[in-house]
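Section 3.1 - Work completed
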Amino acid sequence: MDPADPTVGDSVPGFADTLSLAGSDVGVLAPGERLGRYAIEEIIGIGGMATVYAARDPQLGRAVALKVLRSAAAEPRARAELLREAQALALLSDPHVVPVFDVGVDAGRVFLAMPVMPGGTLGEWLEQAPRSWPQIVAMFLDAGRGLQAAHEAGLVHGDFKPGNVLLDADARAKVVDFGLARRHGTARAITGPAPAVPLSDVRTVDGLVRGTPAYMAPEQLRGGALDARTDVFAFCVALWWALLGSHPFAAGPDAHDAAAVRARVLQGRVVVPRDTRGVPPALRRALQRGLQADPAARWPAMAP
């Protein structure tokens, strides 16, 4: 992704000017410190690009989550990604997408203000207790509605995974982290095949293709143009994994061989586990269609 990418525009007035002022981060914020008008309370999450703080907005009297770029990420590409996220979310108004309240820069720190999502991530929800396949499907359907809303706004998420779905106080799923979002059919500014990396590697692949390798569609691995079907692929990978307990392209003695898994992804060779955990065959077939290597063979959209 490149700050000069035409998809990083000025469609949200003031965002580009504000973010262009950002400099280097000056360290972790402590409880009681201020970032803009927000009072910091505690760290609630740390990612590859940003730290998320629980904070208080004294003007509106509400709790917020502040996503703040970390010092290593305070560079043009990272600022462009945060701008992309703000712009993407500003285009959306959907109960299954986490909204953005505010975006700004203070003392060299670039930040987004969002609502607090006390339910944690969908990934954490899956790990907290055994879930039946209908429970899992119901949660993923809500997340899928968030993706569909993005697609209807002309956007591709580009990095869908359970860690990028948050649950509100009522355990309703909402999609977040639109930092890799782009317009339908747009190729990445940084192209080239993604290297083979372990499925457990949750970092984005920098310098070539960006995203989380375990969920990437073949066209994303090759650095090609993305559309709604790219998100369909990632959604089906995540749901298959949640339902069946294994990655759809990893099984047997080479399950941890990144090159072998990548080859199966590119060829569309899904591995069905012996224990299908009571998941109905029709549901497995629906997911397998979404996991086809050829985008034209997949479901064309999240909604039927």
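Second construct:
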Amino acid sequence: ELLNDIGVDVARYFFLARRMEAHLDFDLDLARKESEENPVFYIQYAHARICSILEFAENSGIAPGVGKDDLSALEEPEELILARKLAVWPFVIQKAAEERSPHDICFYLLELARLFHPFYAKHRVVGEDKDITRARVALCRALKGILALGLGILGINAPENM
């Protein structure tokens, strides 16, 4: 009945986001919400929004980079914080595997979404400056990849649109 009510993705996230030794306090009202208050919705919405950005960039003639992307044009604090957070992904996944702690992945993905949405609200990804645009598109492409991979590891869908 719970899976029919809230869906598999939400149930998985809510159960995996708890430490093994932590008491489970399942907030059914929160699980039903399709808003930024629901962590699963918020993370999936970040992924879907990035998919839209990348599609818009491609339609605007910004082709995916080949090889290493030049991120030196990233200077805004929100961009740099996001880039630094992306850089710790290998350590997060290693720790989660070694300690059998999938909640670390849940927390990390939620933190990425919490960093991405304000970045998106404040900065236009595809703009007039081609260097900044290419760097921001590369940042979004990396973020999309990590969100999709992390959600996939948790067994949660990474929708391309919502």
